[in-house]
Amino acid sequence: VQLVESGGGLVQPGGSLRLSCAASGFTFSSYAMSWFRQAPGKERELVATISSGYSTYYADSVKGRFTISRDNAKNTAYLQMDSLKPEDTARYYCRAASAFRYWGQGTQVTVSS
């Protein structure tokens, strides 16, 4: 089982990034996919979730700015992040959840001018 995040980086406030989470080793289409983030000194928090049936949930702090999606044909989940703010700076992790839970290693997002 493997989850590999990519797409992080340094971006100016107001900018955009698209994170990807490539999955392998399990039946991707059967799992809910989530993005979490953890800033230094803070607890890991849920950012967004997309169910196997494509229902979505967003934390209030990102609602209207972030969009979660999935492509089951590519075994990949995405997080489109627009109108980024300095407080979005964190390490972003994807998680697959169903009968089991799997985590990726994360990708760093830094929002700074």
Description:
By secondary structure, this protein is an all-beta fold. 0% of the residues lie in helices and 53% in strands. It has no helices and eleven strands. The strands form two sheets. Strands 2, 4, 5, 6, 9, 10 and 11 form a seven-stranded mixed beta sheet that branches. Strands 1-3-8-7 form a four-stranded antiparallel beta sheet, with no helix packed on it. A hairpin with a 3-residue loop joins β9 and β10. It starts with a strand and ends with a strand. The model has no long low-confidence stretch (mean pLDDT 97).
Extract low-pLDDT stretches. Answer: none
Write the element-wise H/E pattern from the N-terminal end onward.
EEEEEEEEEEE
Radius of gyration: 13 Å
CA distance, first residue to last residue: 37 Å
| Percent range of helical residues | under 10%
Number of helices: 0
Mean pLDDT: 97
Largest sheet: 7 strands, mixed
Structural class: mainly beta
> Rough shape?
globular
Quantity of strands, as a count: 11
Which strand-content bin applies to the residues? over 45%
